[in-house]
From TrEMBL:
Name this polypeptide is given: Uncharacterized protein
Protein source organism: Planomicrobium soli
Organism placement in taxonomy: Bacteria, Bacillati, Bacillota, Bacilli, Bacillales
């Protein structure tokens, strides 16, 4: 496993951990590079529904312009 794969694995674990507090009523914001890493190494956990990308089929995921690795979880509904 190379460094980029390790970082992508850590990214997925971080997002999963952040979502535990919110259940299915959450939307996720991540840095564009983080999203690209996760999508490159774990494409099966992303689905496209209309114009929205979903993480694990339940959470809308989008990008922010903050620090790479920073995750924002927004409650919805």
């Amino acid at each position: 496993m190379n460094a980029d794969q390790l970082l992508a694995t850590a990214d997925v674990e971080s997002v999963d951990s952040a979502l535990k507090e919110y259940g299915d009523n959450a939307s996720i914001l991540v840095h564009p590079e983080m999203l690209n890493r996760m999508m490159e190494h774990f494409p099966d956990i992303f689905t496209k529904q209309g114009e929205t990308i979903h993480y694990r089929s339940t959470h809308a995921i989008s990008v922010h312009n903050g620090k790479d690795g920073a995750i924002e979880v927004l409650e919805v509904g």
